[in-house]
Amino acid sequence: MQPTQGGPNEPQPQARPPAGSTAQPGHDELIYAGPAKHGAYAWDYLKWVLVGALCGTVGVLLGYIPALAGLPLWLLSFVGLLGIVGTFLKHATTRFKVTLRRIELERGILSKTVDSLELWRVLDLKFSQNVFDRIIGVARITVMSTDQSTPELVLYGLPNGRAIFERMRDAVQIARHTSRPMELVGDHGMMEHVGN
């Protein structure tokens, strides 16, 4: 139900926190900012090394064919090198920023894309490690939210992943209480919800 509008001399509704809320001005205390651990890309590096070795082997074998003997088929091994360079650039241009209010994921080698997620929208957090992750010392933090553009955000390879996960879990609880949508409360006790 919409609040009734008074005359020009009537006081306008004021923004007040909902009943029971402890809303306070938020702040952007940093939990983590920077790239993932280089180990997070270990599988990608290994994959491209194997591709390079395989292509180089194929090039050598093709060299035994008389019709192809004069061609520099060893250049096929550079396919793997290109993949390694691409993986390095991907790592160098991917940045995470986690604060007590939001998560930002910036990525892109030539063009940039930034995904941003307010913590008060987070529904659940999940921390996971497979066997390979445990060997190289990285983890995956999956963030599930009500954000339509970013319903699931994966943070992979952050340094001290378990500690960051614990701080994020606490920050989500705080954000839910301090960043809830406000209500406009008029003089006649009528309320209107205002979303963020």
General description of the model:
By secondary structure, this protein is of the alpha+beta class. Among the domains are: 31-94; 114-180, no CATH class. Helices cover 31% and strands 26% of the residues. It has 4 helices and 10 strands, in the order ββααββββαββαββ. The strands form 3 sheets. A 4-stranded antiparallel beta sheet has the order 2-3-4-5. Strands 1-9-10 form a 3-stranded antiparallel beta sheet, with no helix packed on it. A 3-stranded antiparallel beta sheet has the order 6-7-8, with helices on one face. Helix 1 runs antiparallel to helix 2 (78-92). The longest helix is centred in the first third of the chain and has 21 residues, at 42-62. It is elongated and about 75 Å long. The protein starts with 13 loop residues before the first strand and ends with a strand. Residues 13-26, 182-186 and 189-196 have low confidence and may be disordered.
**N-C termini distance:** 19 Å
| Biggest β-sheet: strands ordered side by side in the sheet | 2-3-4-5
Rough shape?
A: elongated
Element-by-element helix/strand order: EEHHEEEEHEEHEE
- What share of residues are in beta strands? 25-35%
Task: Summarize model confidence as the mean pLDDT.
Answer: 79
**Quaternary:** single chain
The whole-angstrom Rg is 26 Å
Q: How many β-strand runs?
A: 10
Helical region count?
4
Low-confidence stretches: 13-26, 182-186, 189-196
User: Which secondary-structure class do the elements indicate?
Assistant: alpha+beta
Describe how the helices and strands are arranged.
Elements: E1 14-16, E2 30-34, H1 42-62, H2 78-92, E3 95-99, E4 102-107, E5 113-118, E6 122-128, H3 131-136, E7 140-145, E8 152-156, H4 161-178, E9 182-185, E10 191-194
Antiparallel strand pairs: 1-9, 2-3, 3-4, 4-5, 6-7, 7-8, 9-10
